[in-house]
Amino acid sequence: MVKKLLHTRYRVTDLEKTVAFYKDVLGLKELRRHTSGRGSQLVFLKAPQSEEEIELCKFDQSGPVVVGPDLTHLAFEVDNLDKFAREAAAKGYPLSDGPHQTSSGSKIAFIDAPEGYEIELIQRGRDS
Predict the structure, then answer these.
(1) Do 78 and 119 lie in a common domain?
(2) pTM of the full predicted structure?
(3) Burial group, residue 68, by CB count within 10 angstroms (0-12, 13-18, 19+)
């Protein structure tokens, strides 16, 4: 039986542009980088209040990265969705959907990362 989730991997083509998005737009911290035994370039990042990590992987031998619509997404909690949206748009990353109010009082929206992976943003409501 597993104990806990450690990290999630997303393969990307432009590693530096994607790392910059996760750091500069989302505010994640880069923890480490290295090259794997098979030659993958790996960068591990983490949100300030999370234990789980995100692993970004550049491995050109696997062919082009093709992210289909609604394939997968990461979800992050934000304190103020409107403020986040303004700051992200100023950096060239406007919201791709939302914001929408949920029945629990939360607000959700989506933003697209450079490789086309979708990022969900959640501002918790009082009832959440």
Answers:
(1) yes
(2) 0.90
(3) exposed
